[in-house]
Protein: Endoplasmin homolog
Organism: Nyssa sinensis
Amino acid sequence: RSNAEKFEFQAEVSRLMDILINSLYSNKDIFLRELISNASDALDKIRFLSLTDKDILGEGDNAKLEIQMKLDKEKKILSIRDRGIGMTKEDLIKNLGTIAKSGTSAFVEKMQTSGDLNLIGQFGVGFYSVYLVADYVEVLSKHNDDKQYVWESKADGAFAVSEDVWNEPLGRGTEIRLHLREEAGEYLEESKLKDLVKKYSEFINFPIHLWASKEVDVEVPADEEDSSDEEESSESSSSEEEGEDEDTEKGENEDGEKKPKTKKVKETTYEWELLNDVKAIWLRNPKEVTDEEYTKFYHSLTKDFSEEKPLAWSHFTAEGDVEFKAVLFVPPKAPHDLYESYYNANKSNLKLYVRRVFISDEFDELLPKYLNFLMGLVDSDTLPLNVSREMLQQHSSLKTIKKKLIRKALDMIRRIADEDPDEYSDKDKKDVEESSDNDEKKGRYAKFWNEFGKSIKLGIVEDAANRNRLAKLLRFESTKSDGKLTSLDQYIKRMKPGQKDIFYITGTNKEQLEKSPFLERLTKKNYEVIFFTDPVDEYLMQYLMDYEDKKFQNVSKEGLKLGKDSKDKELKESFKELTKWWKGALASENVDDVKLSNRLANSPCVVVTSKYGWSANMERIMQSQTL
Ligand code: ADP
Ligand code: MG
């Protein structure tokens, strides 16, 4: 094009496109749901802006918040258009030429090894999936703040942007034209597109229309027999092959009547056909929504189409001062970067709607950090519609919503633990990681713990109000768990009569801890000791002081009491000289005190940490962090 400005793709984008265009990946269908999802996002944006500025939508067709698809069989073009927010020239260059989000190279890496493109939408590069089926793509776009532009690329490392003086004005929004590759002919079939929308885009909240052919009976004057050329409307000029089944009966009809004034013929007409029924799943009665529907909704919500089922969900209505409906999901897997930026980013994965209108998916006020692994949405009737995001963020109802969400989330997680046996061995753990097809058979809580256990621990540290509830969800191994996971409730059930404290020990791994001299006497006396082997456990135990009125006692620390011994005092007296001598010999910068102990069985002596000091394991963790 004469007025085109040329740009090179960011290297990372180029690499991604190369992979996509050369991909032998069989499931090329995914491009359509990515485009529809982008169209839906763009519509959400304009609708949100229109809440505070009514004029922004314009009039007539422009105000229709919808998605339209059209086929041009002759030219092999599939186009998808929306009346969303559109893109300015600058947007086109930035959004369709660079990758802003992190994790893309991780995705490219993963894709090259696994060949699975199902997660593409989650990585913020879904648009480029058009190159799975097209070798040339045009993006026409009109934003309220700019003229209409066209972006185009043949995926050859470069793209061009020019002012669009060739195409009809869009009014507002974006049209993506895919010039389909030879082998992607199936996407020119209406039935294929209908199937795909049904399968993947069922939960899009805007109407999706297809310019679809329809056979109708029409009466035509009997003497105008060769009218087939004019039968099709001008808009469908490209689909001439569908006109062929007409005019089979000529002259006489079945009754043998001669020369009737009119006759019936089949004619192909075109009209917009609605492909989805726009009903929000969260407004329905939970009893009437099937598991399959929830699973599909989860996939569309998270753009995770890996076919895995969510581990659990909770769909509820909150009533009272603050009314809202919500659906929460526990994903089957933790996202790759869940803990990477834990303390810097607070990105909740809940979408906020106010009275069915999408407001934001970047609200941090809905859930505490440690529950950021949850997916879902909240739709509130109580929150005001026509205020800015900033104002909403400060609305007093949010506190109540958050509180209820946490409660429901923890209930949901507890339910997984109640419903599914969570004891599983190390061997099973491996199986869970290695194969996904026998997932169903494994305890869901074991899976949950494997993926999100750390979040529960961080919750115990951060959320004092729910500490006890979270502690109930804690799982660990112990001297008596026999290679399986166990809980505090189970520990308490196994406690010896008269045992007051819950014993635990911290370290790098179970094997090392099992040999620890700190355990000798305890195991000999048949006490159970919990193994805490995750670095985060040290922090955890600084906050978790007791559970069900039982105190936690680190067995490597001073103050371990295993019941009274009548000879204690006597012994202490008779060893006084020795302990005194030792304390002098070891010097005060090395030890605080030297004491007689009954905690050992075989080892002659042991170094313990003072009650309020860091455990040896904590020292090790701190050292590794500062070095
Ligand atoms: P993501 O949707 O995750 O951001 P994509 O690769 O699908 O990633 O799209 C990249 C960006 O291009 C979007 O964030 C959006 O800004 C822009 N975009 C894509 N399609 C449209 C559209 N139909 N209307 C407006 N903007 C769009
Ligand atoms: Mg997208």
Observations:
- The longest helix spans residues 30-52.
- Residues 34, 38-39, 41-42, 82, 84-87, 95-96, 124-127, 174 surround adenosine-5'-diphosphate (ligand 1) (CB under 6 Å).
